[in-house]
Amino acid sequence: MSRILLVHGWGFAPALWDPLRAALPGHTWLALDLGYFGPARAQLPPALDLVAGHSFGCLWAMTHPDLAGIPLVAVNGFPRFSAAGDFPHGTPARVLERMHKRLREAPVEVLQAFHGRLGTAVPEGVPDLDRLCADLLRMRDQDARALPERQPVLACAAADDPLVPEAMSRQAFPGALRLLAEGGHALPLTRPGAVARVIEEGLGL
Q1: What is the largest CA-CA distance in the chain?
Q2: What CATH superfamily is the domain 3-204?
Q3: Which tens digit of pLDDT belongs to each residue from 117-146?
Q4: What are the DSSP calls for 22-41, one per residue?
Q5: Which of 7, 41, 118, 153 would disulfide-bridge 53, Cβ 3.0–4.6 Å?
């Protein structure tokens, strides 16, 4: 039985992982809560065999010093989100800055638009704007590509992801990418069986 840490993405909550846990029984699942819609639960448990990070949760795990050396599977993830000269398929920083400003002014509208684009629902609870804004800026600023010991062993992405395009995933994870034809940006919800197979593959590496 493996101990697997789950880290959800920006604007999501731990319930994102429920279908995956049902699709892959027999493991100990430990889901963090980054505190976007309720109390944060981000203390790392001991003796982990694998980390699975969804979207920003992948970047969060890659840059967490206490997770160095633990195998990581990226799910709709990225080591960098904003565009750069050597990362042209990322999201322009101005888009994130505009979203950051708007989030303070109209959080409900911003979150509804974000989830509407992804075909998902805004989690229940009161949005914690400080946490959401802080991690939005981390998505603008952080770059984990220079951390070779923390790169995902495998990455699972979808060709129809509206937030992380196929070209971005291919550039970010050459040689480690398992690309699905469809499933969007919430693969733990839409393709839990496929994600389970990638995690099982990661555990066997």
Answers
A1: 47
A2: Alpha/Beta hydrolase fold, catalytic domain (3.40.50.1820)
A3: 999 999 999 999 999 999 999 999 999 999
A4: HHS-SSEEEE-B--SSS--B
A5: 7
